[in-house]
Amino acid sequence: MEQIEQVQLTASHWVFLLLILAIFISIGFRKGVIVPSIAGIFMLGLLADAPHEGVLNQMIFAVQVVFRALLNAGTELFDIMLVIALMVAMLKSLQHQGADRLMVAPMKKLMVGPWTAFFVVGITMYIAAAFFWPTPAVALVGTVLIPVAMQVGLPAIGAAMAVNLFGHGMALSADPVIQGASRLTASAAGIETTTLVPYTLLFSLVVGGVAITMACLALRRDMRSGALEAPKGDEVFTPRSAGAAAVQTDTVKEEEEPEAGPYARIFAIAVPIILLGIAGLMIYRAVFMPDQAIRGGGATALLGGTATLLLVLSSFASHGHHALDGISTYTREGFFFAIKIFAPIIPIAGFFFLGHPGHSAEVIGAGAAGFLFDIGHNIGNYIDGNVFLLTFGMAFIGLLSGMDGSGFSGLPLVGSLSGALGTAANVDIHVLAALGQVAAIFAGGGTLAAWAFGVAADAGIAGVSPAALVRRNFVPVISGIIVASLLAVFLLI
């Protein structure tokens, strides 16, 4: 590889590097990384060139940099937060009139045995998670389909693996519709979300395909040997009491199943058709009418606007003239969910975004260094075109960063490192960033961290322990990530 010109590293670069090390140590001890991130932003502000001289002015500038870094991250991510809030609010309005259960009820007819049940539950979870995100989707899919899956012979751990691998694994790591995960990674890497999504989709399918195949083979072996059995008759677990409570927001009390409203069937048919129609339109235009393609911010706006209109219509169908009051409750619940997801991510993203020169200049001022990109350029001289080391290193970093139990908090780190090292090594940043994102979310989003909310929710909805679910997932998921890493090496050569 051609020798890259060395960048002169300043004290700020070393502080940035030390703070990344501190964040890795915090992750290793399963501690939060918000405080190191904020401390890092403040220290970079202290070391930056303030507009006016003097110790007091430097302190004032550093404090301002902290706020501007958080504001920059929040501004970058707000549209994704908004569309997630609106989608969840729409789902809440559908739940009130019973339309949500009617949407997935037809899938019960397809479950005639344990293996059809496994894939019907999994694929339904994937579709629901792609549009509503996995956490709201697991209550919807799990409470309706899991009891039926058990009745036709699928063990509880098999049902938990289906919703977990398809939902918090494949669907969340690719995030093909809402694209919140990809936006976070792409912003840190300095690339476009629309060019990253095809790679995240590819790697998520590879990891998921390998993991699901191995999981099914292990389930089949244990079911044949009698080590796993489906509950019989009245022993079938009803997840409403345990699982549904686990996936509801703190402000929502568990309620009795609502009776289907007069318009529930209409919405149960119309909403999936509309949302799938939008997804189909996006794909069609991207392939056959690229000059009129709906991507990026336009796709987010179309999805968010559609969710808003459906929310209004569903609220009026459910409440009549009282919808003027009812819609505020759904909107509040939707925003509460979105903020709960993104609030701890914004300070972390604020720090790692400073690794990119564009974000750094926006926060600190014109001429500010892109700290991580400069470090990456210098490291590039030592990589010397070792694509194997670079690829597996990124997969390992993704796995490690996901072990905090979130998956999302590691995406700014994954994106920043991919952008810096990919640029330095002159390889495709999209491949590295996508691999790191998929590894991070499969680990912490999640399928491998027993303390992750996704694992707890999916295990709870099926009535099994999170530790048992993680033990079942470990070898299949790690094998999938290894195969995806080998594919990434092939793509980068």
From TrEMBL:
Keywords from the UniProt entry: Membrane, Transmembrane, Transmembrane helix
Membrane-traversing stretches: 6-25, 32-50, 70-91, 112-133, 196-219, 266-287, 293-313, 334-354, 387-409, 429-453, 474-492
UniProt keyword annotation of Transport present: no
UniProt entry tagged with the keyword Membrane: yes
Entry protein name: Citrate transporter
